[in-house]
Design brief:
Layout: E1 10-14, H1 18-26, E2 30-34, H2 39-47, E3 51-54, E4 66-67, H3 73-83, E5 105-106, H4 118-123, E6 128-129, E7 136-137, H5 141-154
Parallel strand pairs: 1-2, 1-3, 3-4
Antiparallel strand pairs: 5-6, 6-7
The structure holds zinc ion.
């Protein structure tokens, strides 16, 4: 399942896995939700090079499908990391929009005036904007909490990746 590491994985998760998808996007992975209702959908995803992610028993034996057992999103994330052999080096923390999966663009401080709270405008740097929905992202306490949750979960050191895309 992981012979194709030069290209980034594209995950297509069943709609019931929305929280897992959110955390995959936090880590910078291309992840979408869709209704994986039948075998034809699964097979067309596989043909297109995407990785179907599902908890439906009826698909668990299809080659290339990531079958998730847990019903908790953090356990699901660890299952997926293990099954797909994701490594720390592939993580691009906060490089994608959590809402719509698009890659974020760097944006100058002057351009976010009025679009973020005043104290953020005064204190934060490294603003990024979603080209799809226009949401602006910046480092802050909310982000630090997410990093801490991910670090305790995965055992990876992620703090140095908070700025500049986790290189
Ligand atoms: Zn967006």
């Amino acid at each position: 399942m992981n012979e194709d590491k030069e290209r980034q994985n594209r995950f297509a998760a069943d709609i019931m896995l929305g929280k897992l998808v959110k955390w995959l996007r936090v880590l910078g992975f291309d992840a979408r939700t869709m209704l994986l209702a039948n075998r034809a959908v699964i097979e067309s995803l596989l043909c297109g090079g995407a990785i179907p992610v599902t908890r439906r028993e009826k698909f668990r034996d299809i080659e290339g499908v990531v079958f998730i057992r847990s019903d908790h999103h953090f356990e699901q994330l660890m299952e997926l990391i293990s099954l797909v052999s994701i490594s720390r080096e592939e993580v691009r923390l906060f490089s994608r929009c959590i809402l719509c999966n698009a890659g974020l663009d760097p944006i100058a401080r002057e351009a976010v005036s009025g679009a973020v709270p005043d104290y953020v405008f005064e204190t934060a740097s490294d603003f990024r904007k979603c080209p799809e929905c226009g949401r602006v992202y910046w480092p802050g306490s909310h982000r630090r909490r997410m990093i801490e949750q991910l670090e305790s979960l995965t055992g990876w050191g992620l703090k140095e990746g908070e700025k500049g895309g986790a290189e």
